[in-house]
Amino acid sequence: MYVFCYVLICLIFGTTFLAIKLGIVAGGPPLLFAGIRFGGAGVLLLGFLAWRKFEFPRQWKVYRQMFKIGLCTTTIFFGVMYWAEQYIPSNLAALLNAGTPVLVCLLGALQTRQKLHVTQVTGLLLGLLGVYLIVGKGTVEASGIFLFAVVIAGLAQVFSAWGALETRKLFAAGVSPWVANGFQMLFGSVGLLIASAVRGESFAEVTDPWGAFGSLVFLIFVGSILGWGLYYLLTAKTNPLMASTWSYISPVVAMVVGALWMGEAFTVLSALGGVVVLVAVAIVNWVDWKKLLQEMRGKDRSFVS
């Protein structure tokens, strides 16, 4: 069940970057588009959970924690990614997201005050080389705005990684992964809608209503409710590192669907950079990943929440 859940997450998240791009190409204002996606998904999911009589948290500090997670993983992270995909291909956005497991590893080491292993340092250095190959001379659309979008999309991974680590505390307190997902999406959508209003975004910018609507429906039901629900469930049953490693696989999925659907392509250098980045993140987390797999083999745990 772990493997099935993990593979499904990889496939879903590998296609959501393209779905975001399609919505933006259809004229969807990025922050308004993201706000409606997560707000709609949060309301629908929480409504369903309430109908199914799921237990909601009773302590305000838990809601404050979910608000902070929503602010980081939904408002900031996805706000940046939606904006950046106006200027970078969807497959590159997915590739940059492969840095999340590295940051989960680093932030986790800081929290536990453990020293990094030499293989982890090697992986980090390789990752820097890979990023240089992606955004260096000769890569696609290496304009000023392109490079800026790449940089801030990369920095946004810090907030995604922090949120991945913090959600584990919610699960330790007995919060259902589905409930946590619903509230963090709902809280995060508020920030996105406020930012959208400040920027003056409106539906008047939409040029292809059906394209934008189709993208939004897919992102709400498949990308947000199912995809992130499974992600939080896997985080609760394993750990944040294991769950975040979907971003090793999703760039490959994103490259394939991006090339087939929108004709997106990488240069030789950027493709090589992508391989280097994926190798780097695997090296950084290899020891922890191998340890986790050994622990999972030794336990017979139910995957039912």
Automatic annotation (TrEMBL):
Belongs to the EamA transporter family. The keyword Transmembrane applies. It comes from Tumebacillus avium. It is a multi-pass membrane protein. Keywords: Cell membrane, Membrane, Transmembrane, Transmembrane helix. The lineage of its organism: Bacteria, Bacillati, Bacillota, Bacilli, Bacillales. This is EamA domain-containing protein. One of its GO terms (cellular component) is plasma membrane. InterPro entries: AA-Vitamin_Transporters, EamA_dom, EmrE-like. It is found in: Cell membrane.
